[in-house]
Amino acid sequence: MFGMVLLSLLAAAAPRAGAETAPPPVSGPIRLGLLPSIATLSLLRLYDPLRHHLEEALGRPVELYTAANFHSHLEAIRDGDFDLLLTAPHFGVLAYDRGYVPLFRYNQELTPLVVVPKGSAVREPGQLRGRRVVTADRLAALSVVAEAWLKIDFGLRADVDYRLEEVASHATSVRAVAIGDADAAISSPSVLQQLPEELRDRVVPFTSRLRMPHQMYLVHPRLGEETIRAVRQALGGVGETERGRAFFKSGGFKGLVPVEIADIEQARPYADLVSIKNRSGN
């Protein structure tokens, strides 16, 4: 079903010598690395129309890759494994600092939600004390921002005032809440949009006060100026196609806008938090 769509479990991938500078063959495939924000098959289905659009616009194969988890995705960014990258905004800052060229972001803010079961006794996030909260990954932008929000606004500290546990994906975290396996989950409006309506109807979201720019597309400079221009033009025009409009609708996205330096700086404090978490092993 996904003839040209490849899954790379990058957790086991070793750094490649010369990954920062060696150009790919002119006619070779472009490797698009996707943030593992939802289940792998759902992610590949969601982005397959974008892959087709890029292949047609660029006249060369495009392969989709994801990672086993956010840690592996971050390591792949650091190793320069991707030619084109779709990543969380705070990871985008780290990629930018390593030379990746920012192109676009989704035209909306990344807004963490704390999701509880419909009918829950939890009527506001401040009532999560002593509860079990699940998240896709503590390095995820949604989780980093939500943790900061709960601490700043409600005085709740992860692993002290509530239990914060990792599950396979953002979608898995919402499903855990919907079936009663967790008291709350960290999610986002776009993740909820991508879930079946029957699951959405079984949960109630609380919206975070803190926001961040949405996921970013960046390109590795090894592709060269001509290819980077072509990729920029192809991404910029995706919303003008029927396939692109269907892709945005299915993903709960509102189109693309160019990444500004202000977006990078807005996300930078959270990138710094991720660096601290990584060094501490948490």
Question: Describe it for me?
Answer:
Residues 1-19 form the signal peptide. Keywords: Signal. This is ABC-type phosphate/phosphonate transport system, periplasmic component. The protein is α/β, with parallel strands linked by helices. The protein has 2 domains: 10-108 and 213-280, D-Maltodextrin-Binding Protein, domain 2, CATH 3.40.190; 112-207, D-Maltodextrin-Binding Protein, domain 2. 40% of the residues lie in helices and 18% in strands. It has 10 helices and 13 strands. A 6-stranded mixed sheet has the order 2-1-3-12-4-13. Strands 8-7-9-6-10 form a 5-stranded mixed sheet. Helix 4 (141-154) links the parallel strand 7 and strand 8 (163-166). The longest helix has 20 residues, at 261-280. It is globular. The model is unreliable at 1-26 (pLDDT under 50).
Q: What's the story with the biggest beta sheet?
A: 6 strands, mixed
Share of helical residues: 40-55%
CATH superfamily heading of the largest domain:
Periplasmic binding protein-like II
Encode the helix/strand succession as letters.
EHEHEHEEEEHEHEHHEEEHHEH
Helix/strand class? alpha/beta
Number of domains: 2
Strand order of the largest sheet: 2-1-3-12-4-13
Briefly note the CATH topology name of the largest domain: D-Maltodextrin-Binding Protein, domain 2
Name the CATH architecture of the largest domain. 3-Layer(aba) Sandwich
Strand percentage lies at 15-25%
Number of strands: 13
Shape annotation: globular
Ends: how far apart? 38 Å
Stretches where pLDDT is under 50 for at least 5 consecutive residues are: 1-26
